[in-house]
Amino acid sequence: HPADASSVLRMTIQATPQGTRLVWNTEPGSIYQVQTSTGLSTWNAAGAARFAAGKTDSVLLTAGSGMELYRIVKIR
User: Fold this and answer.
1) Confidence of residue 66 (pLDDT cuts 50, 70, 90)
2) DSSP characters for 9-45?
3) How far, CA to CA in Å, does 45 sit from each of 4, 5, 74?
């Protein structure tokens, strides 16, 4: 929410026993799409859109062959 300074999206990459995860804060009840890019000009969906049941969500990252950028898009 642009008028609420506490509603900033925060993403981290964490090493877990299952592998490397992208973790971000959510608004419960919202739907988010993780997207990836290798050069900022084209973004591709990384899996299906995700429903936020709680205050955080995460996805397991797959190892790429080079630099990979991530962003989270709030769909609803």
Assistant:
1) confident
2) --EEEEEETTEEEEEEE--TT-EEEEEEESSSS--EE
3) 27, 28, 12
